[in-house]
Amino acid sequence: MAKCDEGYRCEVCGRDVEAVTDSDLYLRFVLGEVPLETLHLLPERHLRCNPALAQYIIDPAFAPVGCEGPFAKAEMDGQFVAAEERRVSHGYRRLRAIPTLGLAVPEYPLGVTPDGGTD
Fold first, then answer.
1. How far apart are the C-alpha atoms of 86 and 106, rounded to whole Å?
2. Per its UniProt entry, which superkingdom is the organism in (predicted)?
């Protein structure tokens, strides 16, 4: 993680986000939603502390998260929900693999591979 791998405090619960695999910020970076040059400036959260995004992770390694209110996927169009579940789940799988891939931070986002190809 940034800041010399010290991690960040979660802006929601106040505890340390100890691993990149638990990081909402790094998932959003992997998804291309956060530019590299702002990564160290943005607040951090645990994945589970951002239910608006975490509700779209469909993976056996991640217990489902519910979201209430206007951003609940139950309130969204079914096609949008299915597309978000595919996109966010793919990003989550990439995020979980990062510790074993030997990538530099600029190579974390989907679509970027060390050999210049795409994933």
1. 23
2. Bacteria
